[in-house]
Design a protein that fits this description.
121 residues; alpha+beta; two-stranded antiparallel sheet; 1 helix; elongated
Amino acid sequence: MSQGVNRKSILEMAHGAILERADYEMAKIIDNITDANTEAAKKRVLTITLDFIPNETRTAVEVKSKAHSKLEPTMPVKTSLFLTPDGDGQLCAVEMPPQIPGQMGIDGSEQETAAVLKVIR
């Protein structure tokens, strides 16, 4: 081939769109890693798939690319519910706060009244 040939990686083809898709997924991975609601040490995966589909005469090849990231899901949020009768004798579920409602914390904050689960029947 002549010296003026513009050789590029397959990842640079499609006017740079394959690399752009990889960079787009990489941004998702960075956001997921820095999200305090996900497990820090779990791995994330970036997969780039290239499909090569030749025509019948083998004179042209269609290339389809796909970039996909596998992210760490957010960690579960936990709470505890205490089952107790309300003032009318009906069973209700009350969220257990970390302290007694009205109690002052070390930081000067006051524990809010416990939330009662709204049950629709």
